[in-house]
Write a structure and sequence with these properties.
The structure is a single chain. By secondary structure, the protein is of the alpha/beta class. The protein is built from nine helices and seven strands. It has a seven-stranded parallel beta sheet, with helices on both faces. Strand 4, helix 4 and strand 5 form a beta-alpha-beta unit. It is globular, with a radius of gyration of 17 Å. The model has no long low-confidence stretch (mean pLDDT 97). Bound molecules: NADP nicotinamide-adenine-dinucleotide phosphate (NAP). NADP nicotinamide-adenine-dinucleotide phosphate binds next to helix 1, strand 2 and helix 7.
């Protein structure tokens, strides 16, 4: 255990989560990363963090499971110390028109994106209160603000994350803990690589800055929200979308 503050980042095996974990390590946090898959990608994130002189441990957990999330938080606190910054980044899509969307498609997206965010906040809550300080940063999406045809489950989950964020911000403000949501637009990751080319081109055309964002740009915003400089920001939804939603 070091004297550094601990940041817990879910879904940090690739994409936006990996960039956030790497940036927070550069900011001086010890990093706990969460993965649900094989763990090979988590090992690569660990390697990248160690390369910049940071400390990182990875933990396997399906964030949609309440009990696994509880065990995860206990392990992180036991091995690394109290969590100061919680970044709820793990997310999935199961895009279909509502008519074709099966019940399990809807449930799995809500379970990971919304309930997973609740699970981690719930299990870190008492620790935050004890510390009388901390940062919760939830990764929502521009789609949670504006909706998108073919993404009803994803949009509902990400809009839910915004309601959760504002409620938690109000509950914890008196203890000096901030809770904010980040709403990225189209960011170059594995998730957006899955988009059909036509839909991708149409979306790029609609972005005033005429390009997709990078995971590092999202990580820079999260880094600011996790810092002391952002102490007076809570309950906010910060868009990072090239002007797509304004
Ligand atoms: P990604 O490349 O698909 O990565 C998703 C991450 O979530 C992976 O690390 C994955 O870990 C993890 N994950 C998935 N299900 C999980 C579960 N049940 N338990 C624990 N971890 C789980 O996604 P991304 O593009 O970087 O997106 C990251 C976040 O930003 C998501 O919340 C996404 O909705 C949001 N976002 C992305 C964009 C975009 O354009 N890319 C835009 C707006 C918002 P494993 O590999 O171990 O399963």
């Amino acid at each position: 255990m070091t004297n550094n503050k601990v940041a817990l980042v879910t879904g940090a095996t690739r994409g936006i989560g990996r960039a956030i974990a790497l940036q927070l390590a550069k900011d001086g946090f010890d990093i706990a990363i969460v993965y649900s898959g094989s763990g090979n990608d988590a090992a690569e994130t660990e390697r990248l963090i160690e390369e910049v002189g940071g400390t990182c441990r990875s933990f396997k957990c399906d964030v949609s499971h309440f009990d696994q999330s509880e065990a995860l938080v206990k392990q992180v606190v036991f091995q690394m110390g109290p969590v100061y910054a919680l970044v709820n980044n793990a997310g999935i899509t199961r895009d279909k028109l509502v008519l074709q969307m099966k019940e399990e498609d809807f449930d799995s997206v809500l379970d990971v994106n919304l309930k997973g965010t609740f699970n981690l906040i719930h299990h870190c809550y008492a620790g935050f209160v004890r510390q009388r300080g901390g940062r919760i940063i939830n990764i929502s999406s521009v789609v949670g603000l504006m909706g998108n045809a073919g993404q009803a489950s994803y949009a509902a989950s990400k809009a839910g994350v915004i309601g959760l964020t504002k409620s938690v911000a109000k509950e914890l403000a008196g203890r000096g803990i901030t809770c904010n949501a980040v709403a990225p637009g189209m960011i170059e990751t594995d998730m957006t690589k899955k988009m059909p080319e036509k839909a991708r081109d149409a979306l790029l055309q609609a972005i005033p800055l005429k390009r997709a964002g990078t995971a590092e740009e999202v990580a820079a915003l999260v880094s600011f929200l996790a810092s002391e400089k952002a102490a007076y920001i809570t309950g906010s939804v910060l868009s990072i979308d090239g002007g797509l939603y304004m």
